[in-house]
Amino acid sequence: MNLKQYCCFLKDEGLNKIQVSNKKNSRDYPWEMYTLKELLRATNNFHQDNKIGEGGFGSVYFGRTSKSVQIAVKRLKTMTAKAEMEFAVEVEVLGRVRHQNLLGLRGFYAGGDERLIVYDYMPNHSLLTHLHGPLAKECQLDWPRRMSIAIGAAEGLAYLHHESTPHIIHRDIKASNVLLDPEFQAKVADFGFAKLVPDGVTHLTTKVKGTLGYLAPEYAMWGKVSESCDVYSFGILLLEIISAKKPIEKFPGGVKRDIVQWVTPYVNKGLFNNIADPKLKGKFDLEQLKNVTTIALRCTDSSADKRPSMKEVVDWLKNGVGSTWGEENIPTLSIKNGDEGNDKDDKLKNN
């Protein structure tokens, strides 16, 4: 089986059929057509010791090719129609995009019941690993690195929304889908839920995909997806980067609190120091923290029409992190005093 069989035409709701080149040596699509034997050898037969990640789609394995190139191989768990579509979408999207802040496609294999996608190996793993996982205690992400990651991820998304043809909505922006290369440069990954949006189309209505805590309200409730949904998810990610708080926290008695509810009282009271990740031990730029928090809350506005574009977010981040902002550069907030700042929140804020 080859790319043309799986990705020649991508069928989707409200989307025209989009043809993809299958020329292996095309300058636009420089992927490799791996054999199953090559990938079995590279991953030691998908040995458990080589597993570096797992999700609903299947597992990701570390591998090393015969030329000593380090790779990551995503192996789909089961061969269902849903998995087949996600495989086709991811190869389709990855074959189209070329940006320093997007994880590129090295190649793939499709044969029998195996669907394998090959990427560059990211030795510094995912943002999730550093914020909440086994590397969190090491705190390798100092403040400058966090700001660089935020800007890089924003630039990758801005490319998808504004420069790729057709435009692409990611639909699953979250910490585990931001990978880090040897220099801790952000690489937005996992395009299995992505939507390709034809020119002139402002939004699509579709089945809800993604991860709780990151979903824009209009998408979670009505399945209305647009580029603004990615902006919302990115705003949640920004708050997560600076605070190391999870998007949704669960407390005894079934109480839940999302990260916007947690941060809003601090912003209203001007207590920005309380927002920063304690593991930073105060080593951060307070003005930058204020600026980035402000941007994040603009991104997570409950009204999709009031959210900025990713182009605006990139400009704001670069101005707010790279230099001192003037008043004209600071996006304004419209947060009601006491919004989400109830007694329950005050009781939980030190947890």
From TrEMBL:
Protein name: Protein kinase domain-containing protein
Amino-acid positions noted as binding ATP in the UniProt annotation, renumbered to this chain: K74
GO BP: any one term: signal transduction
KW Nucleotide-binding (keyword) present: yes
InterPro entries: CR_Ser/Thr_kinase (IPR052059), Kinase-like_dom_sf (IPR011009), Prot_kinase_dom (IPR000719), Protein_kinase_ATP_BS (IPR017441), Ser-Thr/Tyr_kinase_cat_dom (IPR001245), Ser/Thr_kinase_AS (IPR008271)
One cellular component (GO) term of this entry: plasma membrane
GO-annotated molecular function: ATP binding; protein kinase activity; protein serine/threonine kinase activity
Gene3D superfamilies on file: Phosphorylase Kinase, domain 1 (3.30.200.20), Transferase(Phosphotransferase) domain 1 (1.10.510.10)
Region span, Disordered: 332-351
Domain Protein kinase as annotated: residue spans: 46-317
Xref: Pfam families: PK_Tyr_Ser-Thr
Family: Belongs to the protein kinase superfamily.
Keywords on record: ATP-binding, Kinase, Nucleotide-binding, Serine/threonine-protein kinase, Transferase
Start-end of Basic and acidic residues biased regions: 337-351
Domain of life: Eukaryota
Keyword Isomerase tagged: no
